[in-house]
What does this fold into?
Amino acid sequence: MQEEIRNKKLEVGLNHFLTVSVVLFSLGLYGVVTRKNAVMVLMGVELILNSANINFVAFSRFGNFGINGELYALFVIILAAAEAAIALAIVLNIYKRFANVNVDEINNLKE
Amino acid sequence: MSEIANINLSIIILLLPLLGFFIVLFFGKKIEKLYLVEVGIITLAFVLSLVVGFSKLGTYLHQDLLYSFTWIDFGNVPTIGNLHIDLGIKIDNLTVIMLFVVNLISMLVHIYSMAYMKGDSRYSRYFAYLGIFTFSMLGIVLTDNILMMYIFWELVGLSSYLLIGFWYEKKSAADAGKKAFLTNRVGDLGMFIGILILFTNYHSFSFDYIYSQMSAGILPFGSEAWLTAAGILVFMGAVGKSAQFPLHVWLPDAMEGPTPVSALIHAATMVAAGVYLVARIFVMLTADAMLVIAIVGAVTSLFAATIALTQNDIKKVLAYSTVSQLGYMVMSLGVGAYTFAFFHLVTHAFFKACLFLGSGSVIHSMHHEQDIRQMGGLRKKMPITYYTFLIATLAISGVPLTSGFLSKDGILAGTLAFGELTGHWLIPIMGFAVAFLTAFYMFRLVILTFHGTPRDQHKYDHAHESPFVMVLPLIVLSTLSIFFWYTPNPVSPDAGWFASQWVTTPHTVVPASSSFDFMINENNTHAETSEHGVITHSEKYMHAMHWAHYPAMILSLVLAGLGILLAFTMYQWKKISPDKIAESVKGLYNGSLNKWYIDEFYNKTFIGGTLNLGGLLNWFDKWIVDGIVNGSAAFTRVFSKISGYFDSYIVDGLVNGTAFLSGFIGFHFKKLQTGKVQTYIVLVIFSMLILFYFIGPF
It folds into this structure.
């Protein structure tokens, strides 16, 4: 058994990519949920987007979809950039108004 | 004068008083002296009626002048055929004589009233009312159908009501007006039913048409009993209007009106309308109906005469004597003495109008004193009034050389003949008793009023003869109470033009089986003018009348003489004390003085009964009907209260409950809205996981 395993070259398969993606997604989610700082939350969001990108590319590579996955990944990267720009602008405005960027304390719409 | 000219003239006569009524009613207050227009109009109507009378009696003595037009055309009515209601006028001898009588007395009363009513606050309205009365009375006289008769019949009732209650400030006058109106309603109801019976069967109101159908053998509902019923029912109208027993109670009370009105309406013309009506329906009266009429007339006559004996109000005595004389006329028609009934109507109209106007003259000069116990000795103060009054009294008592003698004699002879032919001897006996009583109470009145010494010196000193316009009518009317106007022979009315030519008994149209045998028209086939009718009483009746003539005359003369003698003995020479007689027959005396308690009886029974019924209905209304109404109101209230509770607690509760529930749920769910983005994300992720778990591919 050992031989067989050793002989066999470790092939990087779909599962590996997905595992990475899941880890990345979980980390991103964790960051989004736990961080108080709005900027950190945004970073979490970036992680989640990137985990999605990995998925796109991996499915594109192992699936029979041509280059659609890669193209979508590119779109997502572009979108993430735009989103980051807008979100950072919002964060800046929030900071101007509340003098901090702590998402816990920005709850004026409640009640 | 042509027929059409006569017709036109009589229409003008009819409408003139109506014109006067409107003129005086609308402008009388603004323009003083306008009543003179009314007097002038009536005078014109009188002159025209003279013209028509001469023309009719001269040229068309045996021919009726007819004019009619279709008033309402109902077209072809199922089961009846062509139905139309015609109105029209018919001028026969009865009509022209009545036209003359009504217009003459109306004119004299107008003239008289100018002085009598002077200073009254409603002077012009009084003349307007007289105008509408004259119009209505002429309508009754002229009509050719029973519908128009009924309409004008009610109109005279109305004007009588207005004039009785003319001084309506006096409660007794207002009450008397109401009493007259309501009492007449009772009779008119019967008349109306009678008219309906005739119309249902013949589909026409015209007298001539109905009679022609009857003589062709068509009876109401095919039975002679219905014919009798129709006759008696229509006669009920006459019972009311002519104040026959038992509906006579209104006439004495009607004396509350102004005295000239009493003379015109309640003595001479309107009350005679009932007699006129019976004369119009005379040909359709069966033997039974005639007997009923004769008995009603005789009872009324005797009954009223006994009351007149003891009355102390000058007008009340005259009122009861009017009732009594009307009973005479009705009785006369009942016994078939058609001519004399109508003759008596005319003569009575003149002498009774004279008596009433004479009493008005006395009352006027005595400053509205009406009690004869306060009078006496007025002969010297008021000679013209006295002599005219005396002539009229002689006439009503049936003294020879007067008109009353002729007509009363005829009536009494008729009753005697009737007794002889049918065996109903009670009727002539009552008739003769009345002749005696009439002479007695009329002379009692004259003696107490004009003879002897004044009993109230103060009033006597102020008494004076009435002005010329008041004594002129008295003179005219008393002249008309003398025989030569009616017949050249002062003892036999048959010799005159009135009874033998102008007014002749028409043929009966009743089947022979239900008519008195002396009424059967045996000469029918030989009669030249069957439409109009020369007298064709059977030989038997002529014979009986002839036989009755002299006994009746002698007997009535003796009785009248005895009555007059007794009156003089008791009141002039005071040989017999009236008080002692009154004392010895106290019960009878009080009965007569109190009018045999008829009014009290009616008060107790009909009026009291009506009031009790009213009370009962009031109680029923108050407790039962109102109870139901209030009960339903209370029930509705309770129900609405329950409904209100239901609304405010159940329906509102549901609504509020829903709102509360939403609020409650919202209150708790809003806690989920923490405002923390991370919480939301966590929730979203959990939700996603749950969704995946349930609908995912796992």
Summary: The radius of gyration of chain B is 37 Å. The mean pLDDT of chain B is 83. Residues 242 and 326 of chain B are 7 Å apart (CA to CA).
